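ARCHIVE CARD
Drawer: 12
Card no.: 0347
Subject: one protein chain, sequence and derived structure
Cross-reference: see card 0346
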Amino acid sequence: MSEPIVKLQGVRRVFEGGRVVAVDGIDLTVQPGEFIAITGHSGSGKSTLLNLIGAMDLPSEGTVHVGGIHVTDRRSMERVRSEKIGFVFQMHNLIPVLNAAHNVEVPLIPMRMSSRDRRKKAEELLELVGLGDRSESNVRVLSGGERQRVAIARALAHDPPLLLADEPTGNLDSHTGDEVMALMHRVRAETNAALILVTHNEDLCATADRHLRMQDGHLGPAD
């Protein structure tokens, strides 16, 4: 078996001097290309867990490895975010004054790429998500589903081996949400990126390799 893309061992995250335990002793291993769906009530610890996997936060106890990098400090956190992870959020977080292509280019700006190469990569990714003809469109004129497609293209810009999706269909109607999830599955199949989906929608978990549930900071199989 190949090296896991995510490995958490004994991970805890506490707040308010230990009075609030958001994540409590989690062990989790995710393999390349695997699709993990995580559900749970609000306040169960899902977002905190995603922040730890996404190197947005550090554990109070335990170890977090992403893409072979031990996440221990600001430097390792920045490296994981820039090299290993693509984020897709419920609120797509696009830059409204930019067009679709320029939004996709944003993660590539710190990299040693010419402006021509950045633009070529952005156009290729927009083509991949079915928006090849909207590269010059300002994102403010795009539909909600189209904006989420741009967000997926942006998440793929640096070829990450791991996609983290936080309620990516939460603001979409059911038909558009199905289209977005179908796109994410296709992208995962074509790139072998692992996908960790956090959602309240149990229906989105039907095709997951594993459906896990958060409850009171603990993570286990969804029964």
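Annotation on reverse: The helical segments are 46-53, 74-83, 100-105, 115-128, 144-155, 174-191. The two ends are 27 Å apart (CA to CA).
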